[in-house]
């Protein structure tokens, strides 16, 4: 494609590979990726905790559902770009900016998944927890979390994909470190090969999280389902 285009705006594979090597060898690539990953993890953890509490409450109490449902639906429709811009305006260049932008973008999808998982629970299991007088902690540990595992993992994948998109926008607009900041530098230098190289590195981290972390964790935590089905 690069040869056919004959334009400097469409780099060849060799040029991309060269720039990729320069970034990996000559730059602080691990530091930049680590900063972005830390921001994503903090924001996603905040979104996950909030979604777990609100989603379970929405599934158990109609009043809570009616109160939070409009906010969840609105959050699903707001583009990540809007959250990025608002958090830059509200919180400046501090840590709160990327963390809250990620949390605000990921929380609605996670909350909806948790709510739907709670609604799908068999009524007999809920009645059993009442009969045996399970405490809220025991219900969370032995009923809700095991039953919600499929919804939580699907929500985690969706939430992480949204988080990565938003964190890049936040770093581009208002921060001086991270992958988004480096992408902005490559854009300012009109380096298409540099933009594609950082994008490839970004994609490699996403693949590592999916295949190295989420899938392995899901297999371990869902072994009991396979044992029961057998």
Descriptive notes:
- With 230 residues, the chain is mostly helical.
- It has a single domain (2-229), classed as MetI-like fold, CATH 1.10.3720.10.
- It has helices spanning 2-5, 13-26, 29-60, 62-77, 80-91, 96-119, 123-131, 136-174, 179-188, 192-221, 223-229.
- Helix 4 (62-77) crosses helix 6, helix 5 crosses helix 6 (96-119) and helix 9 runs antiparallel to helix 10.
- The longest helix is centred in the last third of the chain and has 39 residues, at 136-174.
Topology:
Blueprint: H1 2-5, H2 13-26, H3 29-60, H4 62-77, H5 80-91, H6 96-119, H7 123-131, H8 136-174, H9 179-188, H10 192-221, H11 223-229
Helix pairs in contact: 2-10, 3-4, 3-6, 3-8, 4-6, 5-6, 5-8, 6-8, 8-9, 8-10, 9-10
Give a quick precis of the structure.
By secondary structure, the protein is mainly α. The chain is 86% helix and 0% strand.
Q: Can you summarize the main beta sheet? A: none
Shape: elongated
CATH fold annotation? MetI-like fold
Helical residue percent band: over 70%
CATH superfamily: MetI-like
C-alpha Rg, in Å? 21 Å
Approximately how much beta-strand content do the residues carry? under 5%
Number of helices: 11
Distance between the ends: 52 Å
Uncertain regions: pLDDT < 50 for 5+ in a row? none
E-strand count: 0
Q: Which whole number gives the mean pLDDT?
A: 83
Give the helix/strand class.
Answer: mainly alpha
Q: What would CATH call the architecture?
A: Orthogonal Bundle
Topology pattern, helix = H, strand = E = HHHHHHHHHHH
Assign the CATH class. Answer: Mainly Alpha
């Amino acid at each position: 494609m690069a040869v056919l285009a004959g334009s400097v705006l469409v780099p060849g594979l060799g040029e991309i590979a060269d720039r990729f090597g320069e970034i990996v060898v000559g730059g602080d690539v691990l530091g930049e990726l680590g900063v972005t990953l830390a921001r994503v993890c903090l924001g996603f953890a905040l979104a996950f905790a909030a979604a777990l509490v609100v989603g379970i409450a929405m599934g158990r109490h109609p009043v809570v559902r009616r109160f939070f449902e409009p906010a969840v639906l609105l959050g699903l429709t707001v583009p990540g770009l809007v959250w990025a811009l608002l958090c830059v305006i509200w919180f400046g260049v501090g840590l709160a900016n990327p963390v809250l932008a990620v949390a605000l973008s990921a929380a609605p999808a996670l909350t909806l998944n948790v709510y739907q998982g709670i609604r799908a629970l068999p009524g007999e299991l809920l009645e059993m927890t009442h009969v045996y007088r399970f405490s809220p902690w025991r219900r969370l540990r032995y009923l809700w979390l095991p039953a919600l595992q499929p919804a939580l993992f699907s929500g985690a994948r969706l939430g992480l994909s949204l988080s990565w998109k938003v964190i890049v926008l936040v770093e581009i607009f208002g921060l001086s470190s991270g992958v988004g900041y480096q992408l902005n530098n490559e854009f300012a230098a009109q380096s298409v090969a540099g933009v594609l190289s950082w994008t490839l590195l970004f994609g490699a981290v996403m693949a590592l999280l999916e295949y190295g972390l989420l899938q392995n964790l899901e297999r371990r935590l869902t072994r009991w389902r396979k044992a029961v089905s057998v």
